[in-house]
Amino acid sequence: MDFTLLRNIISRYCVGEENWVDSRTVYIGHKEPPPGAEAYIPQRYPDNRIVSSKYTFWNFIPKNLFEQFRRIANFYFLVIFLVQLIIDTPTSPVTSGLPLFFVITVTAIKQGYEDWLRHKADCSINECPVDVVQQGKVVRTQSHKLRVGDIVVVREDETFPCDLILLSSSRHDGTCYVTTASLDGESSHKTYYAVPDTMAFRTEQEVDSLHATIECEQPQPDLYKPSVLICEFLHVFYSCRPLGAENLLLRGATLKNTQHIYAVAVYTGMETKMALNYQSKSQKRSAVEKSMNAFLIVYLCILISKAVINTVLKYAWQWSPDRDEPWYNHRTENERQRHVIRAFTDFLAFMVLFNYIIPVSMYVTVEMQKFLGSYFITWDEEMFDEELGEGAQVNTSDLNEELGQVEYVFTDKTGTLTENNMEFIECCVDGNVYIPHAICNGQILSAASSIDMIDSSPGGYRRVSQRISKLDNKTHLLESSEVYFLNPDCVTSTNNTSEHEDLFFRALCLCHTVQVKEEETVDGIKRGIHQGRPTSFYISSSPDEVALKLHTRIKTLGKRFHQRLLHVLNFDSVRRRMSVIVKSSSGDYLLFCKGADSSIFPRVVSGKVEQVKAREGLRTLCVAYRRLSESEYAEACHHLTEAKLALQDREQRLAQAYDIIERDFVLLGATAVEDRLQEKAADTIESLHKAGMKVWVLTGDKMETAAATCYASKLFRRSTQILELTKKRTEEQSLHDVLFELNRTVLRQHCLDFGLIIDGATLSAVLKPNQESAGHGNYREIFLEICRNCSAVLCCRMAPLQKAQIVKLIKASKEHPITLAIGDGANDVSMILEAHVGIGIMGKEGRQAARNSDYAIPKFKHLKKMLLVHGHYYYIRIAELVQYFFYKNVCFIFPQFLYQFFCGFSQQPLYDTAYLTLYNISFTSLPILLYSLVEQHVTMETLKREPSLYRDIAKNSLLRWPVFLYWTCLGVFDAVIFFFGAYFLFDNTTFTSNGQMFGNWTFGTLVFTVLVFTVTLKLALDTHHWTWINHFVIWGSLLFYVIFSLLWGGIIWPFLNYQRMYYVFMQMLSSGPAWLSIILLITVSLLPDVIKKVLCRAMCPTATERAQVGCFANFQKFGEFFCQIFVFFANDETIFFGARK
Predict the structure, then answer these.
(1) Core-most of 249, 275, 513, 853, by most CB within 10 Å?
(2) Which parts of 616-726 fold into alpha helices (H)?
(3) Which residues are catalytically annotated?
(4) Residue 701 annotated as binding site
């Protein structure tokens, strides 16, 4: 039940008006404003306590019981238990209450333990020490005692305890560096800026003397859209300054490369942005769970039908006055007139008698199987990565079997298929291509060093030298380049090219987020260690920038240029570019811009666009610039200041300002980097194809780069016919014509191997909702039809939201396939959450994908074993578990149904109360649980060697209705054999050796004994992988049943008000015919299933069964080989008897 609305109402009327106004006022240091400045209204805010737990000590029992009884099966058994308490039923309430109590207790213990762990984690966070400035001194307190307005001191490598506004920093320029890996998954260092008016504060006394307020919006979960205004009081007057995301330090982020900072708390506790993003993931349900619910409804209908049939037949049988009631129990006239009430109570009594056909213990067994089975992934040594020092992780165990049902795999490219380790390949400046190595056209240039930039354009080679001398946040110093020509013919065109080269490298040096860092630890991985000694290294928010910096440190000649950084137009995923405005030493204003080609080219007014376009298969960043006049710079400052001052819609206004400023560029050139393919990525994709899965690559890269990676990873083969559905093609033809043309192509030539390439712009047009009514047909269905006939699909230039839309589109198609999404970055989280199964890669783009996924693996290559081995085993095991549970319950209850025809429908139970209670809890539970944990129908090596075996279990093949019907019919057949076999064998009155006759409890015990042995041996016949623990549990369960029956019937228990089972089991075992009946009935019951398996394997074996035969043949050959060795040594007397005589 959601109490959010009630909590909001209470907060609104009890806490204060600030909870529902648009903004809040924070008094820094809790200092009241000067007299006459404004009215001081003290406001109350929540403390800094974080609560992620679900229960408390007081509400655990009622809340947990409420949640558990929301499950239909639990609620059903609760109703049955209450019926047994209210009316006179044929079985004791213990028979339903004890299994229900067991299930509820086990589940409550599991959930309580998990919540206790959350409580421990909350306490460790809430009790962390925090330094607060109070009365000019630093006081240490606990995190949960922080209040809005407190001035906090945070030191290097410490985590921010709440959302803070940066007041000042130990760095002279008022900046600090922060990693947000635990918040948004990005492990790169981000730069944050102090409030300009307070950045000069260096001591606690100076910070504590500040009199100011902060106006900010009410808490909202968006991480990057704060609207903050700081107002500093100067006597009666005060000044206002806008603040943005670059001033807001979020809880969970970590301070890096900065000694300490002073900051003021603006959001605390559950109002911090991190806490507001604690939203529960949508509950994913596996196909097996859906099948279980469908089967449960069928069995519920069977149960109701049985109760109705028996109720009707009871009154039909009693219609005759002779069969009304025995003479000693005749009903009164009043009782005879209450037909409806009597019939209803009889119906409920039959429901209670047959309710065991619904396997309540199946749910707890399935939960235990999923929970315990998930450890096999965690313990898998083959999925452990030495470099990361981590193995696979399981974030949810509810989807283990879904790993064996995947039909579509959606994968990111960068960092997932590739290593996300960029290598600088070349750059193009003003149409001239430069490479960073000393090899050009296959020839080694002896005059060039390994870090020289060699012009490889037609007409000659020349060497360009460039190096960053010094970088800081206010002044960037750039040493100009001097060009050396290896071919004198190039000198004639040097002037303009040299100027563009200078501007090009100046843009690379200024327009970036690179920092220099010593040794550090990111996500547990140490960086900056070389041969045991700390060294400097580059860190950045983009691996492309690090690659560029590593290859532009070159010998310097010439004079220095002093560049003053004026404005930074930060990168965002919508614009796909970043810009800086600088003022050179000569007084010129320059706007440098760097970004994706699709975002730069439309804004270019001059430059060699065609020559600058990168070569196929490389990631490119285009570099452009624009000279600004005094008036243009003033106008740009006006737009930026106006947008930053806005408290409402600040992001939209900033985007509009950026759009106005970033125009009329002169294209300087482009850089090209390459991302290497991950180890065994191609082998993994090839195995997934053989397993029948369709692999789609969803990436933000351009088409040429992504296509080259797809060919390298064997997603596309050389024989694959590529179909393009791109913006370029739709500009030449209408989208309608292109779609229908591609559809005709794939339908006419269905025997060919097709691959589809589509870009984000075209996908948006295809998915437009108004297309369905545009008169040209449903574009979505046509697009899906094309995709169904393609073995692989590449989606390039995709936004994160489009990735999720693609996954959702495939999920909602008429086939309803099982989808899997895998990625490593924060931009992949949307598709990971959308897919049926989400897998995160522990990559270099942080851990948000791994944290939001269902499973996390170190490398893409581990996906092969995750699906083909673990997924295969999980599905086989749980499918057998579900079918077996329904089968053994049919065997259990159907003899009870048949027995009513022989006892006048009197609701007399066939089995004793103890047997009814313990059948699913003790006698038959452990063997199937162990089977579902350790069964291996084929070896791991076979599954990895033959990926096509995955096809045998595709589309939920083991839980389809024909298979379910077979198991149900098999259960009915066995039940008929149990009941009528025992009935006809003891048709005549049977005497034991001492002359006693068998009674109804002996008959029921005989049927129950055959039942327990048959269902247990049935599982033994289905077991392929035998270990000592299998033998212990299976034979131990049978032995436990025998010992329990001997004790239960061999002792007079004083707490029982009846002794009907006394000596019954021993009496049955003392009879020779009973032993013969048990053996004969077990054999007859198991024979049809054995014959069916033998015939199916002989006539139409599946690929899995053929693999099992192959494994057995290999084992047989292996055994023959050892037999030959033994015979050889046995014949050699020198081995056993010494030297021959």
Answers:
(1) 853
(2) 630-645, 650-661, 681-690, 703-712
(3) 412
(4) yes
